[in-house]
Amino acid sequence: MWIPTEHEKYGVVLASFRGTVQHGLPLEIGDTVQLLEKCEGWYRGFVHKNPNAKGIFPCTYIHLKNAHIKNKGQFETVIPTEDSVITEMTSTLRDWGAMWKWLYVKNDGDLFHRLWHVMNEILDLRRQVLVGHLTNDRMKDVKQHITARLDWGNEQLSLDLVPRREFSMVDPDEISVTELFKLMEHRHRKKETPVPASTHHLFVHMKSLMSSNLGEELEVFFHIYDGRENRPLSERFFVRLNKNGVPKSPEKTERQCTLFVDLGSSDLRKDVYIVVHIMRIGRMGAGEKKNLCSIQYRRPFGCAVVSIADLLTADSKDDHLLKVYACTTESEWYQIHENIIRKVNSRYNLSGSNTGLAVSLQLLHGDIEQLRREYMVLFTRGVSITKKLGFSDIIMPGEMRNDLYMTLEKGEFEKGGKSVARNVEITVYVLDIEGQVMKSYVAAGSGEPGGDEYHSFVLYHNNSPRWAEQIKLPIPVDMFRGSHVRFEFRHCSTKDKGEKKLFGYSFVHLMQEDGRTLPDGTHELIIHKCEENANLQDSSCYLKLPFSKANLPGNNQAVKGTKECFWITSFLCSTKLTQNGDMLDLLKWRAHPERINDSLLKLKEIDGSEIVKFLQDTLDTLFGILDESSQRYGLKVFDCLVHIINLLQDSKFHHFKPVMDTYIESHFAGALSYRDLIKVLKWYVDRIVDAEHQDHIQQVLNATEYIFKYIIQSRRLFALATGGQSEEEFRCCVHELFMSIRFFLSQENKITSPVTQTQAVFLRTFPAVYGELLKIFTVREVAGFVRETLGSLPATARAECPLEAVKLHCIAKTVESQLYTNTESRCILLPVVLHLLQAHMQEQRDLVMCARILTSMLSLVRKYDSTATEPVVSEEVDLIVDSLLVVLMRTILEITNRPQAAGTNMRLQFQDITGEFVACLLALLRQMSDKHYQQLLQAFTSKDDLRDFLLQIFTVFRILIRPEMFLKDWTVMRLVTNNVIITTVLYLSDALRKNFLNDKFDYKVWDSYFYLSVIFINQPCLQLESFSPSKKKRVLEKYGDMRVMMGCEIFSMWQNLGEHKLNFIPAMIGPFLEVTLVPQPDLRNVMIPIFHDMMDWEQRRSGNFKQVEAKLIDKLDGLMSEGKGDETYRELFNSILLKKIERETWRESGVSLIATVTRLMERLLDYRDCVKLGEVDGKKIGCTVSLLNFYKTELNKEEMYIRYIHKLYELHLKAQNYTEASYTLLLYDELLEWSERPLREFLNYPMQSEWQRKEYLHLTIVQNFDRGKCWENGIILCRELADQYESYYDYRNLSKMRMMEASLYEKIMDQQRLEPEFFRVGFYGKKFPFFLRNKEFVCRGHDYERLEAFQQRMLNEFPHAIAMQHVNQPDQTIYQAEAQYLQIYAVSPIPESQDVLQRDGVADNIKSFYKVNHIWRFRYDRPFHKGTKDKENEFKSLWVERTSLTLVQSLPGISRWFEVEKRELVEVSPLENAIEVIENKNLQLRMLIAQCQSRQMQNINPLTMCLNGVIDAAVNGGLARYQEAFFVKDYIVNHPEDGEKIGRLRELMFEQAHILEYGLAVHEKFVPQDMRPLHKKLVDQFHVMKSSLGIQEFPAYVRASPVHFTNGSPRSSCRNSVPNIISPDGARVVARRSPLTYPAVNRYSSSSLSSQASNEVSNITGQSESSDEVFNMQPSPSTSSLSSNHSASPNVTSSAPSSTRGSPQLQDKHKHSRENSCLSSRERPVSAIYPNPLDPAQRATPHQIGDTTLPRSDPNLSAPDKVRPTFSSWSLDSVKEVNNTQFSDTVGKLLCPPVPPRPPYPGSSAKTIRSQSPVPTSRSPQKSSLPPFTPSPTECQSAGLVSNSPVLSGSYSSGISSMSRCSVSEASGTEATTGDHPAHQGPTMPNSVSSGSDELIRRENKTPPPYSVYERTNPRRPVPLPHSLSIPPSVDPPALPPKPHQQRTSSMKLVPASDPRRADGVPHVPRPRPLPRKVSQL
Predict the structure, then answer these.
(1) For a tag site, which of 862, 897, 1156, 1276 has the least CB within 10 Å?
(2) Which residues contact 619 (CB under 8 A, 6 or more apart)?
(3) What is the pLDDT of residue 909?
(4) Predicted structure pTM score
(5) Contact predicate 1348/1703, CB 8 Å
(6) Alpha-carbon distances, residue 1378 vs 1222, 1327, 1329, 1374, 1596 (angstroms)
(7) What is the arithmetic mean of pLDDT over 1314-1341?
(8) Using CA atoms, how far apart are residues 1385 and 963, in angstroms rounded to an integer?
(9) Which 3 state secondary structure label does DSSP give 1806?
(10) Degrees (nearest 5) of the Cα angle 914, 917, 922?
């Protein structure tokens, strides 16, 4: 049975548990669990990280921990009872764990490893804490380390700052908000700005001296030198080096390392240096021989200098190599360092180029104790301490030091009978009172132990040596008396013996007889002469002699006159000895009572350091004098006491205050002193008002604190001694003293009055007295003193008065004092404090101090409970609210609205006080109860006052919510703020309802309320979804979801508004919409219904809710682009509102609005996802296009439309889609007029006129068209701009524009353009974005992009998509699948611009543009068998399913892809298929023959392969298969309607045989010698083929057929308009060789029509070059109908490029013929032709023969190879005229390209399901000089066919082409030629253009955005066109120059787009394109 657990509440998982049992809960090791129930070895509970999942688990897996339970019961919270630091550490490490793994995923290796080390360190410290074996001090250190590392990690991971007190986290509810703010601020400041250390230390490690000329031992001396004052700052550090230049004692680190201690901040400057002097120990001369003498001398070697400023930048211990300078002039050695510093080092040479002193230098900061802790290794290993000369900046009590420093300055010596100067050496000894040498008290410096004597260095031959050598004499204090120092002078001989001869001595006493030490300074000592054997052991012999010239008696002229002198400088640094006689006199006052008066007066002149040395003795002296002679010396003793007290205020002696405190507490014994002290103090106070000079009185008042300490301690001692006698007397004295004080404080004086300054001095020290008074007086008495004293101050407050600031400072000290913490005293003091505070805050004065006072006050007002203090606290809160709430809010408003100060410090200061005032306001509001709020609101006498208060507090709350109010990581503070705000708002909302509704309605208050509520909900710190689970749980447990609370309050208040809701429609739609976008389901459910309410009220008011709709749409875009909203919101919005409006009368319009908004959300979400996820540009572009169209077509939001135009434009530019970018920008351009209307600044456009902006847009678009090689479109815009310039007579710009236009024409003719592939893409499945879902598109591929590359790109863009492996339309299961399916295959474009494509003489460079631009329709063919398949002849049943796709816009446009608007299927019969196949193969043969004749082929291989493919296949039954299929009696009987087509097929077969015969003749002429056998074989096979067809000779109509090949190249030789007649001996035209040639085998594969000969051909031609045209030949997706049983050559098959091998997903209708052509006839899936019956527009050009499913941009070709010339016409026969008996039912549309179109020619109608395409235009009547002949009634004109079909597919090894065929049944044109035989000229062709009625019907109902420059003049598609690309009706554009083959008539008129045929039936030749209307005018 499950029993609820009592004590077992909290546990940690010891081992992972899978939870495989029923109701089992999976556990991971380390999880913490809360236990709810227990049953027989099992617990039931939950894991803390997922409290919703409850289950059971074994007890043995859980380690129980003691825990504290809050809210026992259903909602209990369990907190482990362990050290709070451990709890925090555990939870923090859990949070870090997840983030640490994420760092690894993000590849942030640096932070990952650093955090890993810190986490391990914290775990190690945690173990130490848990073991519990640490001492208290160590535990404190460990916790400090832990919290420091926790804070570091939180900062690095951008987590919240944790407020702590004593290392433990604080609960914000348990301390006041002001305390919380101070804790947060303290932790932030600690983190941000460490306090700069005032003490610094220099660590020096001597490593070695590197020099080439060593060989002697060295002594190195370091010291710190002040270059400004030219004096050393420290004693010397001394290191001995051996002969190798390294320290002599490497094992003793203290001999190599030192710490120069106690450097002040002022010492770290540029002119403070480390100076190094180096001495050598050896012979007198560095180069002397070794055997000369054995005595060694100390001699100068070198000097080095480095500035301390150079070390300030070095963070770590850096090694330095110091340059060592040698001094050649020894007499200057004493100042060598000064000269180096002054850069006068030219006189010194470096000791050697490679000489350097290697030292390690490091600056350390902080006091020495701190360094001992931080650098423990340094101190334990050993380091010598090198002290500063003199005391440090701060003298610490208890410091013991007694060092005498002597500097051997200089000497003056006589020659002593020598011819040269002496080599003088000084030996120094210290002797005690008995004349004995003191051992080890002479030190050269720190680092080496002291010695018994010291030898100076020797200067060679110098009678006036200057040493400047410092020594240290650390003599104990007790040995100073009677000691002296002796200096012995010796001459050092350089002769063989090298002996040292004594010639004199000097001495000096260390202490005078009166106890004073040797004074600091320079002393001139007398040199007493003596001999070498003189006995100096007995010091008494010479001590009676004079030692200094200054001390000589006046009559001793003999000694004074001597020339020999010796100078020394002494400096004593002692804490016990003094050189001051006055000090000694005072301390010995009993010995000389007559000197007391003088000594007391002189005390003020004594140096402070001397006084603090003897502080206790001095104080004892003063109080001793006071006790004995109070009447006589009372005033002077008081003054001396004041002097000493004020001395301790100095920062240098500040640390001696504790010494005085200790003295007062422990050593002070003046029990009677209080009377004298009070009396003298009162005497001074009484004289303040009348005194002229206040300086001394101010000093007295400055010492008030310590005077009171002495008074109180004295009274306590007296009371203790007498049992409390004279208590009343004492109290009376104190009361009288305070009366005197109050009197002088109450005086009103001028601001500059000395009395005012004295008042200020007293107020500064007064708060320090409270604590002393409390030792004797009660709390109430002291509070009374304080209240009366502060209350006596003058009431008139003047802002400029300095007393005001001091007064406030005094109040601050009072509030922070111990006195104020007591509740009793607080009640007495609070009114005084509040009065002063209110006055200052109202006038905005001294706000920093006001904030400090208020913070301290409110920190004491605890959150009270039902204790006895409740009434008191409540009363305090009442007082503070009444006095300060309103003024506090006003202060916050004024501070936050102030302009930011320029200085950083000022800005920080304001930020600080703002935070403090805010914390005070929050603390005050948090203390207020219902009663306080009621009192507050009732206190407002008028509605206006209440209204102002509410507006003010709402404004303040909005300020508090600002993100910049608190630092980013202060989440704790923000949550407390929000909790206070929502509590207060709930109280105030009642006042709002009661006072400002119905007839008293006030819009401003309500609006402020709603605005506050909205920004409250939208705060980042309340968005719990962004928090970690643990943080979210903590917030919800403590505060709940405050957004939902506020949302419910908004809804409640909204419902109360009634008819006043109309005031907030539409203003509040945006804010409320923003609230509903917050991802909190409960909040959304509460808030979304408000929109229904708004719709309802707006419907009542105006009969519609257009305003609501407009506002919703406007706001949605901005909000969703900021990342707000999601798919769930869209569904919720839709469902809630639809449900709400079900019963409304306006339901239909409501549903419409909701649908519109929902669709907009879909698009906005898709757009945001694309942008946010960093999607590929294609996806972003598609999404932007969808959104842009939605804004234009459905919402008509012009501004948003324009914004997205520019977003799309930027995307295109980024993707380098320059053509698409131009079309996009054109959308904006066409919204503008050529007017002078001013336009505002918008996006990146400046303020300018509409004309200027349109001009700028035109130029930008032209530039992008140029970059995108879409020059034809750019020309139109150039013309329009030129017209504008011309109309303004701006000829300069007109000239530039004409030149630009000309340059574009040149580029068209000279530069090559790649023709892109087009691909149909289907996006199926619900996982695609809305704008793609279940739609099909046609995409314009990139340059060189083949199907496989495109397919891979699409799969990369949609990595989760599945590529469909068939081309059939998917079923509903695919449409509805929760997946992504992609269906991709290539399609062929159907050009619209037939007039250009079918025109003779138009260069291919021009035609290539029209083949792939402005394309609406695309086609794809799929073969299939209908009925029974004949195994012998499969072509009897081979049909073709032709799919035509029509787009919503033409390509290219504003996107690289557009949606398919319409798809149509046509079935082409086997017979029609056969006609198309043969017809296209004939065209292919004609072109190749013409190319061969005109020498445009670089080799003959392509013609060879094509002939071989046709003839060889025919031998194996090629054309015969068609005969078997369609010429048999059964077929003719069963299909009587096909009689005409059968005849046409027969004619084409005969024509093919004739072409082959002629082709063989041409082939024979050009065939290379090595291919002659193949040619012979082809001739033989051709005869067999002819006989198999039953042809003995060709019919007359075939023989007479003129078969022309047009060369349309502008530069070809046919410019003379005389066509080449085909004959083997015809005129030869030089072929244009392509810059790049490739082996044909790389492009061609054999088809099923190939024979065994194709192997031979491929082997022969595999390494040969093909013509340019070969590379554009593209295999068909079908196989030939005349298939051979011979498979392709392995050479050909294997060498097909990878891009020709097709995609694995393209089967049946999408398999490339490349694939099929690489297979044998048996391997192919269908041995059939995949014909493409084309409109006449589809006639193949020479460079487009191939498969439309393949790209025509071969990646292996350069651009120049892509443009092919056309060919001259040729004929096989002659005689017959062209029959022009029929006009096509449909004739092509009119376009106005830059090249004027020619009138089209009629053709025959075609039997198709879909509408017809335009027929080709006729050839130029000037092109032929021969009489025309009619090959057959149905023959296509070859010129039109050759030059116009963009795609002719098929392999050269095929007998019959399989793609891009031109069906005669669709359109057939015959050519009328004129020349030398006018009798044969065809009938005059009328200039007529007709348009099919069904085409007009198909287009007329569509008005999409004009994305194409040309399509807008299309009469088949009446689309409004942009003004920017139009010519206004009143302005005729300049005529284009006529083309060489065409004369322009001046009477050309434009047929309106809506009237393609004139009423009179006489159509006109079109002029260059009419200009359309603006889109915005629709």
Answers:
(1) 897
(2) 641, 644, 660, 663, 667, 668
(3) 47
(4) 0.62
(5) yes
(6) 37, 6, 12, 9, 67
(7) 92
(8) 54
(9) coil
(10) 120
